[in-house]
Amino acid sequence: MGFSPDEITYGLLIDGYNREGHNIQDTPKLYYKMKFNGPSIGHMAYSLMIGDLCRRGKVKEAEKILKVCRDKLLSPTKSIYNILIIGHCESGNIEKALYYYDEMIRDGLTPPSRTLRALAELANKDNTLLIVNEVFDSLANI
C-alpha cells in the first residue's frame, strides 16, 4: 500500500522548494505529477507559488499563476490579494497595487494594516498621496 500525497503535502514541498530559492515549475517531474496525477491544487498551493514569485521580484509571473488559479474557478483569497498588492508595492508599481486593492474590496475582503502600510509608503515615495487618500476614504465604507 502506497502513500498518496494530498494538497498539504504538495504545499509543503512547494514551500520547501521556495525556501531553497527554486520555483516548483523548475522541477518538472514533481510539477507535472502534481498537476496531472496529484490532488486538485487549491488556494494554499497557489498562494505559496504566488508568494514565492513576488518575494523574488517576479510579479508578472505571479500574475500568470493567478490567471491559472482563476481559470480553475478559484477566486483569489485575502492572502493572495495581499501578496500581490505588497509585491507590486515592493516593485514600485502603485497602479497595479491599487488595481488589486480595488479588486480585493470589490470581492468583499478587507486588507490588513500591513497592506495599507505598503500602499501608503509607496504613495509617499511616489508623491501620489491623493490616490492613497481615496483608498483610505473607501475604507470608511467597508
TrEMBL record:
Residue intervals passing through the bilayer: none
Top-rank lineage group of the source organism: Eukaryota
Matches recorded under Gene3D superfamilies: Tetratricopeptide repeat domain (1.25.40.10)
Pfam short name (any one): PPR
Keyword terms of this UniProt record: Repeat
PPR repeat ranges per the UniProt record: 6-41, 42-76, 77-111
Family per record: Belongs to the PPR family. P subfamily.
Protein name in UniProt: Pentacotripeptide-repeat region of PRORP domain-containing protein
